[in-house]
Amino acid sequence: MHEITLCQRALEIVEQQATQHGAKRVTGVWLKVGAFSCVETSAMTFCFDLVCRGTLAEGCKLHVEEQEAECWCEKCQQYVQLLSVHVRRCPQCQSNDLRIVADDGLQIQRIEIDQE
């Protein structure tokens, strides 16, 4: 389960940004997860809650959005978007000769803080 490591690193960044902006606590975090990043959303939510205990982010709401991966279809000769790692066929021609072009892994999109 690599989600715990991803959550620990994300929390480091969240706490750093929150501290720089004078936060008393973090109330929300928005993450974007790439479709082929092999991140299980339920495990991510569980791990994030776990690593946030005793920090500025304890009890914050985690929002996870899955991002489509951009792939190149050799048969169609065009770019296609895929949302699931389990679907590895071109939605246009059903070919499985796809090359992943862009899948941004994990990104912190937004942090909500309370300064009072």
| Widest β-sheet, arrangement of strands | 2-1-6
Figure out the total of helices: 2
Helix content: 25-40%
**Series of H and E elements:** HEHEEEEE
Termini gap: 36 Å
| pLDDT < 50 runs, ≥5 residues | none
Please identify the oligomeric state.
Answer: single chain
User: How many runs of DSSP E, i.e. beta strands?
Assistant: 6
Q: Helix- and strand-based class?
A: alpha+beta
Instruction: Please state the CA-atom Rg, rounded to the nearest Å.
Output: 17 Å
Characterise this structure.
26% of the residues lie in helices and 35% in strands. A hairpin with a 4-residue loop joins β3 and β4 (78-82). It has 116 residues and is an alpha+beta fold. The longest helix has 18 residues, at 3-20. Keywords: Metal-binding, Nickel, Zinc. Involved in the maturation of [NiFe] hydrogenases. Required for nickel insertion into the metal center of the hydrogenase. It holds the Pfam family HypA. Zn(2+) binds at residues 73, 76, 90, 93.
Q: Which helices and strands appear, and what pairs or packs with what?
A:
Elements: H1 3-20, E1 25-34, H2 41-52, E2 61-67, E3 69-73, E4 78-82, E5 98-102, E6 106-114
Features:
about 35% strand, alpha+beta, HypA/HybF, Hydrogenase maturation factor HypA
Task: Tell me briefly what this model is.
The protein has 116 residues and is α+β, with helices and mostly antiparallel strands. It contains two helices and six strands. Helix 1 packs across helix 2.
